[in-house]
């Protein structure tokens, strides 16, 4: 199993294009695992887990 790549919601948005509000809803609904908070109190998610939930864009 790979180590999680923990990022805050804004970095996750920059990497995936998913809005931070959407990620918060997914966290609240249990669709994503919450990995605590950073030193500034921002929620942390695993970027790999988030990317697995992201629908791939058709070419």
Account of the 3D structure:
- With 59 residues, the chain is mainly alpha-helical.
- It has one domain.
- Helices cover 42% and strands 10% of the residues.
- The protein contains 3 helices and 2 strands; from the N terminus they run E-H-H-E-H.
- The chain has helices at 9-16, 20-29, 47-53, and strands at 6-8, 44-46.
- It has a two-stranded antiparallel sheet.
- The longest helix is centred in the middle third of the chain and has 10 residues, at 20-29.
What is this structure, in a nutshell?
The chain has 59 residues and is mainly α.
Strand order of the largest sheet: 1-2
Question: What structural category do the secondary elements indicate?
Answer: mainly alpha
Strand percentage lies at: 5-15%
Oligomeric status of the shown chains? single chain
Helix and strand layout, with pairings?
Elements: E1 6-8, H1 9-16, H2 20-29, E2 44-46, H3 47-53
Antiparallel strand pairs: 1-2
